[in-house]
Amino acid sequence: MGEWYIRLMMTLSVAAKKHTCQYPPALFLMGPTASGKTSLALSLVDQFPFEIISVDSALIYCHMDIGTSKPDERVLQKYPHHLVNIRDPFEAYSVAEFRRDALSAMADIVSRGKIPLLVGGTMLYFRALTKGLSDLPASNKQIRTALEKELENLGLDAMHQKLQAIDPEAASKIHPNDPQRIQRALEVHRISGIPISEWWAKENRQELPYTVFKMAIGASDRRILHQRIEIRFAEMLKAGFVDEVISLRARGDLDLDKPAMRAVGYRQVWQYLDGAYDAEEMQYRGIVATRQLAKRQLTWLRSEQNLNWINADEKDFMENALKIVAQIPK
């Protein structure tokens, strides 16, 4: 760790002084699903005094290991991850709760002389950390249920068109293949009569007390990412993904309305077990849903400023990433 450690601390300390004169550094490692974020994060921990905070809305849940590609117990013991296995799948977990928990973990890490390394693909979580939260109306179960029925009957395109009609600004920012954000925007409007874009404009921007450095891992050729997604989904099935969902169903307190079961892959396996389609169709739908997730993640990342990209399909991408980290700022 010697030379790398000295170089990292010197460069990050200089950058922190440039930006804030007082704020400690933190590194955000972002990227689409199946891009190799976890492997890169572990390599960074081996080289630098980082400690990992998971920024993943599925890894928070216990008993959801295979379908989330959660690091196994051996890895978690060697490389502790904050905000992994902190909720039961029956429980909800809000963006506000994530922000609170992440800030607490970051403060704890810094107090022990280490640097927070926030790793994941839940871009809304990253955005909440850097830009704060707006005081949106609380969810209304009756309205949400009505919207879910509309979605089932009309389809996602029609729901996005509804959003376009009442809030063109929000519709331009929310991807047409993002059902959760479309439904939430429609729900907010029906509850309050105010477009969600107006709520965003009133957003309470809470300053993040860290000097943040951003790095994203991706592939220059989208076909490579798609291949990785296909391979990983097949590996999850071989590892017992279907049995994992069978166990979750057997509990009796979960259904497809629970946020945990809306996670990519779990919904498709659940519907397969309901008899909606056969195993081959389930695998295909799971891969397509994962590709759509990756596309949404990349759309978010393209809007990020001051982002250092790492090309995961280059043979020496790990070394390139280490060099970037050690030389921040350039």
Walk me through what this model shows.
With 330 residues, the protein is of the alpha/beta class. It folds into 3 domains: 2-133 and 207-220 and 304-327, P-loop containing nucleotide triphosphate hydrolases (Rossmann fold), CATH 3.40.50; 141-201, Histone, subunit A; 225-293, Orthogonal Bundle (Helix Hairpins), CATH 1.10.287. The protein is 55% helix and 10% strand. It has 15 helices and 6 strands. The chain has helices spanning 2-19, 37-47, 73-78, 95-111, 123-131, 141-154, 156-166, 168-173, 179-192, 196-201, 222-238, 241-250, 266-273, 279-302, 317-327; strands spanning 25-30, 50-54, 81-82, 115-120, 211-218, 307-311. α13 (266-273) runs antiparallel to α14. It starts with a helix and ends with a helix.
Question: What is shown here, in short?
Answer:
By secondary structure, this protein is an alpha/beta fold.
Question: Notable features of this structure?
Answer:
330 residues, alpha/beta, Rossmann fold, Histone, subunit A, Helix Hairpins, 3 domains, 6-stranded parallel sheet, 10% strand
